[in-house]
């Protein structure tokens, strides 16, 4: 995570792009870190190249790439495509991602106290480079996780306005991922 922390210090907004239309838009923004939440095995290399050529750091959500498995070979494929890191909900992939020299971001969905306990255990066992907590409005949960794991926390999902961003950052998040274009330029 330290490889991108300087970009997040400069601008803690991460553009979570979810379709082709977002690519051209995000290239024109000051956002430096991109979470790519779409793609296919046929197009991923071209999209990553275009974003990196525009000076962006690209992190691909492996679980959302069509035609790509969720295994060590898929991690190697994405490394070959030029990604800076990989986002996954699968704790078993964290080691493979890190072994390839990529940044590993584990995405967790906080639904109840059990998912909080299970998530913290998984983070401490697998040691990803960063954790993305969903939904991003869970300020109390952000604070609890931040105090227990000593790993950078990113939050995303249901971030609607600048107030949500300020709340998440003040509770310990280092960055916010959002697909809301108007927040990419805050």
How do the strands and helices of this protein lay out in sequence?
Blueprint: H1 2-10, E1 13-17, H2 20-27, E2 33-36, H3 44-53, E3 57-61, H4 72-80, E4 85-88, H5 94-99, E5 103-109, H6 113-126, E6 130-134, H7 139-149, E7 153-156, H8 162-170, E8 175-178, H9 181-184
Parallel strand pairs: 1-2, 1-8, 2-3, 3-4, 4-5, 5-6, 6-7, 7-8
What report would you give on this structure?
The chain has an eight-stranded parallel barrel, surrounded by seven helices. It is globular, with a radius of gyration of 15 Å. The model has no long low-confidence stretch (mean pLDDT 91). With 186 residues, the chain is α/β, with parallel strands linked by helices. α6 runs parallel beside α7 (139-149). Helix content is 43%, strand content 20%. β7, α8 (162-170) and β8 (175-178) form a beta-alpha-beta unit.
Could you give a quick summary of the protein structure above?
With 186 residues, this protein is of the alpha/beta class. It has nine helices and eight strands.
Question: Any key phrases for this structure?
Answer:
single chain; 186 residues; alpha/beta; TIM Barrel; eight-stranded parallel beta barrel; 9 helices
How many separate domains?
1
Report mean pLDDT, rounded to a whole number: 91
Arrangement of strands in the largest sheet: 1-2-3-4-5-6-7-8
Largest pleated sheet = 8 strands, parallel, barrel
CATH class: Alpha Beta
Number of helices: 9
The global form is globular
Relative strand content: 15-25%
Supply the CATH architecture.
Alpha-Beta Barrel
**Order of H and E elements:** HEHEHEHEHEHEHEHEH
Poorly predicted regions = none
Using only CA atoms, what is the Rg? 15 Å
Share of helix, binned: 40-55%
């Amino acid at each position: 995570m330290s490889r991108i922390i300087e970009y997040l210090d400069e601008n803690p907004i991460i553009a979570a792009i979810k379709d082709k239309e977002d690519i051209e838009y995000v290239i024109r923004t000051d956002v430096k870190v991109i979470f790519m939440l779409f793609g296919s095995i046929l197009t991923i290399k071209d999209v990553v190249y275009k974003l990196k050529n525009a000076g962006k750091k690209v992190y691909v959500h492996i679980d959302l790439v069509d035609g790509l498995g969720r295994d060590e070979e898929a991690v190697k494929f994405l490394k070959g495509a030029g990604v800076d890191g990989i986002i996954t909900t699968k704790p078993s992939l964290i080691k493979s991602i890190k072994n390839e020299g990529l940044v590993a971001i584990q995405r967790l969905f906080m639904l109840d106290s059990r998912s909080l306990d299970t998530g913290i255990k998984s983070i401490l066992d697998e040691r990803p480079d960063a954790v993305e907590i969903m939904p991003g409005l869970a300020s109390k949960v952000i604070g609890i996780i931040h105090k227990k794991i000593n790993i950078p926390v990113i939050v995303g999902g249901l971030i609607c306005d600048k107030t949500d961003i300020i709340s998440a950052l003040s509770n310990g998040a280092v960055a916010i991922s959002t697909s809301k274009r108007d927040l990419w330029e805050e």
